[in-house]
Amino acid sequence: MPAPASYSLPESTVGLKGPVDRPAPGTLPLRGDLAHIALAEHYLAAHYVIPQPRQIGDAPAVLKLNTRDDAEDGATLAAGQAIELLDCAGDWAWIACGPQGPSGYVRLGQLAPSSDA
User: For the region Disordered, what residue ranges are annotated (predicted)?
Assistant: First the structure.
């Protein structure tokens, strides 16, 4: 299992100073309700998360842009690739390849077992 990434918390007051372009779905790990902690100084979200390091399981995984099997496909991640787990809902995990993405959803069963499981 890869070592956890180190992300520092913002050192000053976080605030937006004008309009911010919303990135395309499947790029940055940013949703309306949640964002990667490394994006806190640049994007507004209701909550920020410090990701948990994980890996894709034994087979490649296609990121989905929504939590449905028929959702639009995003990037394909290689088997064993290091990823960051941001959120889980039901059988789905929202993951990213770091704060610059790509990001998307995979079924929890597509992730390698965690070392603390």
Answer: 1-20
